[in-house]
Amino acid sequence: MLPSAALFTMMLSCFCLHHPVGGQDCASRQEIQVSLKQVQKLLSAHETSYLQTLRNLNKKINLMQSSATKLPDRATNSTCPKLEAPANGKKLGRSQSVGHEVHFLCHAGYELVGSESRVCQESLTWSGQQTSCRDINECASSPCLNGGTCVDEVSQFSCVCGKGWSGPTCQTPLPTVFITMTNMSDAAAAGSHVRPSRCTITQRATHCTCEPGYTISGRDSSVCTDIDECKLFHNGQAGRLCLHACVNTPGGYRCSCPAGYNLSRDGRGCKDIDECATRQNNCTKDQMCVNTHGGFQCLRVDCPKIPHATYVKTSLIRCERNPCPVDNRACSQAPNSFSYHYLAVVSNLSAPRVMFTVSALRLIGDTLRFSLLGGQQARRHFTVQRSDRVTGELMLVRPVQGPATLEAEVEMTELERRGQLGRYITKVTMFVSQYDF
Ligand SMILES: *[C@@H]1O[C@H](CO)[C@@H](O)[C@H](O)[C@H]1NC(C)=O
Ligand SMILES: *[C@@H]1O[C@H](CO)[C@@H](O)[C@H](O)[C@H]1NC(C)=O
Ligand SMILES: *[C@@H]1O[C@H](CO)[C@@H](O)[C@H](O)[C@H]1NC(C)=O
Ligand SMILES: *[C@@H]1O[C@H](CO)[C@@H](O)[C@H](O)[C@H]1NC(C)=O
Ligand SMILES: *[C@@H]1O[C@H](CO)[C@@H](O)[C@H](O)[C@H]1NC(C)=O
């Protein structure tokens, strides 16, 4: 508006400057004054309206400013604080806006404490009290009889019965065998094989269980009977429960081993005790201690007494012939040496197998001959065979059932052009144990 007013004034002054002379051609002074007054009026009207508009604008801006500072408070706080679901329960409804409602439910076995429903109020707080879920105490009604102790669990309970009582609510007297047993060691001594069961009672059912090693047998669910693992797993597919003997115990079992053996670390096998290494033997100083499976032997080597020759002990297990008088043929034909060896083996050892080898250190003649001496018994169980030029083997030909002691003699003969240069006897004694472990 202002620019157009200025233009108007300028046009007016131009008009008068370009036509300064000849008053007749130019408008009269009166006419000009009237025109100017009209323009003045117009200008002041414009000024008033302009100022008014400015004031209105200012007012509007102020209003907007003040409302802008107040608005956010109202906008963010139109909801109530968030409510969490109670432990062991749940919340229904998510809205936190004013006027909305949330509801609470508790899981089975719990009861609701506080408000079931809460409303978001104008004050932006929730109505009612805080909600929680409390475990229902099934023991409140003292359901266990005869001095039983009630154990409250979630939506169920169980009874720990006093002496002599059994059953879900301790309503059943126990068989007399049990009553006489006052504690576990007494029970074990009496060969206890009954125990009370432990029952859990819910609204729908009663479920009784036993301690490990016991089971409910028959109709009476209040009594647990010991499981005889030894009988149950006798010849089980997974192998024998115990290598030797199984002993049933209240609630379990244990393995046992015969004398001379210790239970192995796995609890089911048997391990031979080495009495010779542990001084659990009574062998004297001049005796050798030979450990066998399940026992030991105290042995002393005495050199043989045979006609025409005498022997001297050269070690604990060896005797050598004393030099023969010249031309004493009987003496020179007697064995040059006797050596003694002891083997400990388990019963029913698989056969055939090499039990012992006899070897010459050096060969003086041109041949060595190996043969088995000894009676019928030796021949029943053994043979002797050559494995190379200087070695003979004593073979077990069939399994032996222990306990048994077998003896065999291996003769090694040194020959030259069929003449005998020397004979050497090796005596082998085999101690076969009673058990095959
Ligand atoms: C508005 O809400 C904020 C956080 O949400 C809170 O700190 C403030 O106190 C509330 N104001 C009122 C008036 O409730
Ligand atoms: C259990 O019995 C054993 C042997 O009879 C006895 O020594 C022990 O004191 C008893 N224990 C209890 C708790 O009665
Ligand atoms: C065998 O067992 C007994 C008792 O368990 C123990 O005293 C002994 O030292 C054991 N012997 C061997 C050789 O392990
Ligand atoms: C060792 O003791 C056993 C009995 O424990 C006995 O039969 C045996 O004769 C004894 N042996 C020796 C050499 O004393
Ligand atoms: C001896 O061993 C064989 C084969 O291992 C077995 O079949 C047999 O039953 C065993 N005999 C005895 C008496 O243990």
TrEMBL record:
It is found in: Secreted, Extracellular space, Extracellular matrix. PROSITE patterns: ASX_HYDROXYL, EGF_1, EGF_2, EGF_3, EGF_CA, SUSHI. It comes from the Eukaryota. Residues 78-135 form the Sushi domain. The keyword Iron does not apply. GO terms for molecular function: calcium ion binding. Disulfide bonds join 106-133, 161-170. It holds the Pfam family cEGF. The keyword Ion transport does not apply. Keywords: Calcium, Disulfide bond, EGF-like domain, Extracellular matrix, Glycoprotein, Repeat, Secreted, Signal, Sushi. Residues 1-23 form the signal peptide. Transmembrane segments: none annotated. Belongs to the fibulin family. This is Fibulin-7-like. It comes from Takifugu rubripes.
